[in-house]
Amino acid sequence: MKELTKAEEDIMQVLWDLGEGNVAAIIDELPKPKPAYNTVSTIVRILENKEFVGYRKEGRGHIYFPLVHKAEYSHQSLNKLMDGYFQGSFKSLVSFFVKKNDMSLQELEGVLKEIKKDSE
Predict the structure, then answer these.
(1) Which of 27, 32, 56, 81 is the most exposed place for a label (fewest CB within 10 A)?
(2) 91 near 108, Cβ under 8 Å?
(3) Mind giving me the DSSP string for 13-34?
(4) Which conformational region is residue 22 in: left (phi greater than 0), alpha (psi within -120 to 50 degrees), or beta?
(5) What is the Cα–Cα distance from 109 to 54, expressed in whole angstroms?
(6) pTM here?
């Protein structure tokens, strides 16, 4: 799977949330200051070329939709982060975030319970 730039990820987040939409709908969901229509249109075409986004014609325009699921991209991104900075060690990754975010033991236990609940 190809990497996305920050701008491409921002557009994908909107499409994942919307499910589908035209360029105007994507712009409506982006924070202010809103990017230009042509900028978003260009990024969407790049996402098409990277095979992250598909489209269907509707009238004179296009409706865009994600081809890559958010969970799939998140998993790939997390693995890349772990491999690149934590030598593939989940334990090192968690330890880093616990130390940097000054988590208490209770907060860490809560996170672990959530992880366990989600995996059941």
Answers:
(1) 32
(2) no
(3) HHHHHHSSB-HHHHHHHSPSSP
(4) beta
(5) 41
(6) 0.76
Q: What are phi and psi of 64, to 5 degrees?
A: -100, 150
The half-sphere exposure of 52 on its side-chain side, counting CA atoms within 13 A, is: 23
Residue 93 is predicted with a pLDDT of 81
Are 29 and 15 in contact by the 8 Å Cβ rule? The answer is no
Q: Are 52 and 59 in contact (CB under 8 A)?
A: no
CA distances from 74 to 15, 77, 86, 91 (A): 15, 5, 17, 18
Token code pair at residue 84: 């690149």
Q: Give me the tens of pLDDT residue by residue for the chain, a chain 120 residues long.
A: 788 999 999 999 999 999 999 999 999 999 999 999 999 999 999 999 999 999 999 999 999 999 999 999 988 888 888 888 888 888 888 888 788 877 787 888 887 788 777 766
